[in-house]
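All the exercises in this workshop are built on plain-text protein records. Sequence and backbone structure share a record, each on its own labelled line. The question running through the whole workshop is how a given chain folds. The record below serves as our worked example for the rest of this section.
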Amino acid sequence: MSAWFDYAAASKILVFGLLVGAALPAMFAVGVRVNAAGAGAADDGTLAPKNPILVALSWAIFALVLTGVVVGVLFIARDFIGHHTGWYILGASHR
């Protein structure tokens, strides 16, 4: 380990950035694609029968992506929330 660079922290930031920066948008794109297939849109532009299972799966994917975004925002604002409300969530410090 270098005296001026923390490789462990940099690798954690890289992995988290890849997960949030690539995985959440990719999951959203998959949700849009599954929703389109479930809602009756075919690849060639014709109408296909609706599939409620695919629509439910797409909404579950959207809920997972939304949960990830909300938890991320709460994690960033955890100290602010704890200071102003007294709710110390997601590992916020008691100052």
Summary: The CA atoms of residues 38 and 53 lie 7 Å apart.
